[in-house]
């Protein structure tokens, strides 16, 4: 098999880490306004940059890779020292290909390989053609059963448009509250605000308006990112792996080996309850993708086609007798109580901050509601031969189905937990990924030999 080279972007990370070597002296001289020394520093920086560019070119020329017909990847470096690495397709838990906009303009792709059972990954910067060739050799897409969502893109962009309009309205309110313009220009700029905007501008303090703007902008950015990821999205399954592909600006592709899947995570939140569907994230080895494998409705059969035997934890609340209240409520209760105390104090000392502090207190109060939901529902069960667990993290309730053999389990008990026969369980999956279930009743875990 012919050896192939890396893309020139492979040395960018090396140059990026060394940029301070020649920029920091320039900044020191520039701030001192010593122009003669600045010219000398520029010459030294140019010389250092030339040396580093030559070293980068040598590194790029010395690096080669090849993959044979059996899917065995060999990467070698020959620059002063010899460094070789070999990875077989059977040892690969996951593979991702990322093509950000800058990489696409240069014809490059970032390939990340996740060996099974290891935290250490292997990252290669290749051309787009070589990246696809490597992926097809390591995890071939043959006889794939594909599924492309319909209507999801239009809905996502519709929601994004509505949210963008609301964000612009909030921005107008914040600018009006800050009053940066002269009265005539301000009157002309806000002559067409509706009654709701006028009411909010009258009663919302400037800090609260800007706080709402910040939340709206962040939510808008999140929706824009989700909509861009959902564009051209396709998910498929073969006999050996799962895969997905999509993206509008930042294109990506992910392939997960079925034999190395760790767990499937169905994340519930207030938004999922309102929409009636949930995102499903699948982890393999140390690969924890930020992009869901699919969005699933409980009456939809496609998840069972992708993951046969997938099971959900029972919906009934667990027995909370003796369950640790501090373990669930202190992380959100302490900042919530502090914000409420500051709100009460600001009412008499700095009334302008009262409403913004109330907004922050409301956020922590919502986290307290989530903690109460976890206090009622967290647990671990054996469902249809599958180990399932449920745990609360912030606003999200995670329903997890373990797809690999029983992972490593660690039980930790305080003297108070031992007195009520409860324990905290930490599940460690291949690749070092961990999940923690709090205050579980030991008598409910006979399948774990408690």
Outline of this structure?
Helices cover 44% and strands 26% of the residues. The chain is an alpha+beta fold and 450 residues long.
How does this structure look, described?
With 450 residues, the protein is α+β, with helices and mostly antiparallel strands. Among the domains are: 62 residues; 79 residues, no CATH class. It contains 14 helices and 19 strands. Strands 6-5-4-10-9-8-7 form a 7-stranded antiparallel beta sheet. Strands 13-12-11-16-15-14 form a 6-stranded antiparallel beta sheet. A hairpin with a 5-residue loop joins strand 1 and strand 2. The radius of gyration is 27 Å and the shape is globular. It starts with 11 loop residues before the first helix and ends in a 9-residue tail after the last strand. Keywords: Membrane, Transmembrane, Transmembrane helix. This is PH domain-containing protein. It comes from Faecalibacterium taiwanense.
Number of helices: 14
Give the CA-CA distance, first to last residue: 54 Å
Beta-strand share of residues? 25-35%
Q: Whole-number average pLDDT?
A: 78
Widest sheet: strand order?
A: 6-5-4-10-9-8-7
| Rg from alpha-carbon coordinates | 27 Å
**Helical residue percent band:** 40-55%
Biggest sheet features: 7 strands, antiparallel
Give me the secondary-structure category: alpha+beta
Using DSSP, what is the number of strands? 19
Low-confidence stretches: 156-171, 173-197
Shape: globular
